[in-house]
Specification:
The chain has 69 residues and is an all-alpha fold. The protein is built from two helices and no strands. α1 (2-31) runs antiparallel to α2 (37-65). It is elongated. The model has no long low-confidence stretch (mean pLDDT 95).
């Protein structure tokens, strides 16, 4: 159980860094767009999905910390 929790925390930390990089890129694109509108839209969708995944990982970690699973 502890190993799973550590794996999930590692995965969440890695995802957090990836989200930060994507946000930085999105901010640059909003200032001066160098990709197509489609690419920008897809990146924004990717960001939303990554954020959802981050929240889900957090919930799994919390559940494990409560020793329910």
């Amino acid at each position: 159980m502890k190993e799973l929790k550590n794996q999930l925390k590692h995965e969440r930390n890695k995802l957090d860094k990836q989200i930060d990089e994507l946000v930085e890129h999105l901010n640059q694109q909003r200032t001066k767009q160098t990709v197509s509108d489609t690419q920008l839209s897809l990146m924004e969708t990717q960001f939303m999905l990554m954020e959802t995944y981050y929240v889900l990982l957090g919930r799994r970690i919390k559940d494990l910390e409560q020793k329910r699973g």
